[in-house]
Amino acid sequence: MQIRSVLSCAFVLCSVLCFPIAAQETTKPAARGSRQQDAKIEESKAETQKIPGKLAFNLRVKTKPILNLSLKAEKAKLADVSQELSKRLKVPVFLAPALEKQLMSVEFSELTLEPAVQLLAPAVYIDYEVNMATAAPPQPIGIFLYADNQSEPPINAVVPGNTQSLLIEGNTEEGVEPQSEEDKKKQEEQPLRILFEKNHLSVKAKQQPLSLVLLKIGEELGIPVDIRYSSTDTVSTEINKLPVEDAIRQLSPYILLFVRADLQHSERRALRLVLYDPAKTIPGEF
Known about the structure:
Radius of gyration: 37 Å
Shape: elongated
Order of helices and strands: HEEHEEHEEHEEHEEHEE
CATH class of the domain at 182-275: Alpha Beta
Structural class: alpha+beta
């Protein structure tokens, strides 16, 4: 009887001593799982914190009825905004190195292109292609977001084409102001007269070859002219002090005019003239 009692006590004591160990062993996996779950929660939080940095701005681009932009940015990088703008417009946007790390906070809604991009940088230039064959507005082909007092971008930064047609004439009195009334009368009776002053163009032509008229306009404007089509068309017109785009539109539908808008100084100037073959599709060939 005593032996059985001793054995029974020993069994109970062993059970009591072993139970905490088993309980302790069963809680260890739970602790590891808890740490893994906590790590996932912390990682999720970190990813959530990164998202606002990527979405520090909201840009919307609409093309109808006209091209307009809407932007809401709060301490967003100008470099990120310009990159997204380029992607949406499918137009290269060049950002000055001095502005790459600049943060911006701005909000505007449904502004047309020029007033919208003026809010992004101190100096802005936009190069356009004007196709005289359509009534569509000028198409932007390059946007430059520059720092204040930075030099203007090169004329051929985005404007295509490196060729230029030459005008050869034998009149050595070109550019000489007529002195007598007779000389003035002779000048007025010339079959082709081109005058560019105060950003307005005047053209007086009587049965003059289109290519010659364009070359003379290019000479007066100081821009290259690319004659890619031997047109037999002649021009008889009298255009009096019109903006360059409006004046050239009256000459032929087969002309591309490239212009630059300097938004800081509210100026527009011609960069290049191209007379193209109407049998070929454009743009993309220049």
